Each structure stands twice: as C-alpha cells, then as structure tokens.
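To start, one record:
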Amino acid sequence: MKTATGIIAIMLGLLVLLQSCAIGAGSSLLGDQATADAGAFGITAGFFLFVGGAFSFGLPMIGGMVLLVAALVAFTGVDQFPDLQVWAVLALVLAAMSLFAWRSDRKRRQASSAANIEAGQREAGQ
C-alpha cells in the first residue's frame, strides 16, 4: 500500500502543481488577485502532495502527516478555487492510506521480531 500511496500522491501533486500554476498565471494576467492567491495555495498543496508521496515510500507516518498538511492548505483556498476541495479530499484519503500502511508495517515488524525472539529461545533451550 505504501507504493500505491506514494505513486498516486506524486502524480496527483504534479497535476495540482500544473493546474495551480496555470490558474495563478492566468489570474495574475487578468488582475484577479483573490484567485491568484488561491492558485498559490494550490501550488503549496501540490508541493506538499509531492513531498508526502515521496515520504510515503520509506517513512509512511511522515508521509501521512505531510499529506494531512496538504489537505489543510488546500481547504484554505477553496473559496476562490473550488477544485482545491477535490484535491484536499484526495489528500485526506491518501493520508489515511499512508497511516494505515504505517500501522500494518509496524504490526508486521512486531510479529516478525516476536517470532525471531521465540525461535531464539527455542534454540537456546535445546
């Protein structure tokens, strides 16, 4: 699940960055400062999505937290840039996936270490 979360978050981050750059540039050319500011929130959210996806491969807990920050940043600019609501919800879903991957990985490591300890005790007892 870590790999899927990372790939989806990186691709989504690039998409959000591209869309937000286009919105920000177009709004600046038209003189619409509020939408340009919302585009800046989108660029920031896209950056956090990209970084969170990168962290999800090796450190899923950190990746989940960064994806949560991306969702909060995206929700901030929803008033002027409604597409950010979609990206924010997707960032929340990816954050949950990353945290579930971290939890399952932690449980698997604990079970593996418990099995190794038990095997070592059996060998020592023989």
Notes: The helical segments are 2-30, 33-58, 60-76, 83-125. The radius of gyration is 20 Å. DSSP finds four helices and no strands in the chain.
